[in-house]
Design a protein that fits this description.
Elements (H helix, E strand, L loop, with lengths): L1 H26 L2 E4 L1 H7 L1 H42 L6 H62 L3 E4 L21 H9 L2
Parallel strand pairs: 1-2
Length: about 190
């Protein structure tokens, strides 16, 4: 019985040593990536930013057109108001000019509403498109990181670019040998 106890103890020690070695090996498989840098240096991010900027320019042009109509209406209103105050005109003509000026005020308010509505709608569209673009690109980056980690048998990949609620960097030190940002960027931007 004593022999079996020694054999069991030896096997337990061997299993424990193997487990510890495996745990140490897995711990060595923790690496870091700067996700902000990957996102900003990914070629698709630059392409998407250029598309968003082009759409923002289109938005500004459309807004200028709508605002131009508003300026035209305000100019007409100012002319009618001045004419309604012109004492050289008959009372009947001045009253007609005042009535026309009042109609322009209503048209101006409607156009101001259109400008505001257009601005809000297009801003929301651009924000939503930016969020979708960002979410899609981050998803692509995560897929590349996950593939990289699986192929190399890594235990974990942590983002070294984040900060805590206190505004302090979440990762205070990363050994450059355990930073895979450059490899991920090469994979993302190849071709």
């Amino acid at each position: 019985m004593r022999m079996g106890g020694r054999m069991g103890g030896w096997m337990m020690a061997a299993w424990l040593a193997a487990s510890l070695a495996g745990a140490q090996e897995r711990r060595a498989g923790v690496v870091f990536v700067n996700l902000d840098r990957c996102f900003n240096e990914y070629y698709k991010t630059r392409v998407a930013d250029a598309q968003l900027k082009a759409q923002a320019r289109e938005f500004e042009e459309e807004l200028k057109s709508i605002a131009g109509e508003l300026e035209r209406l305000q100019g007409e209103f100012n002319s009618l108001r001045e004419e309604s105050l012109n004492s050289a005109l008959s009372d009947e003509v001045r009253a007609a000019k005042r009535a026309a000026a009042e109609e322009k005020v209503l048209a101006i308010r409607e156009q101001e509403g259109r400008v505001q509505s257009f601005r809000e709608r297009r801003s929301k569209q651009l924000e939503e498109q930016s969020r979708r673009m960002r979410r899609g690109l981050v998803g692509e980056i995560k897929e590349v990181i996950q593939k990289y980690a699986r192929e190399r048998g890594l235990t974990a990949v942590l983002d070294s670019s984040g900060t805590t609620f206190n505004g302090v960097e979440a990762v205070l030190y990363v050994d450059p040998r355990s930073d895979i940002t450059d490899e991920i960027l090469q994979e993302l931007n190849k071709g």
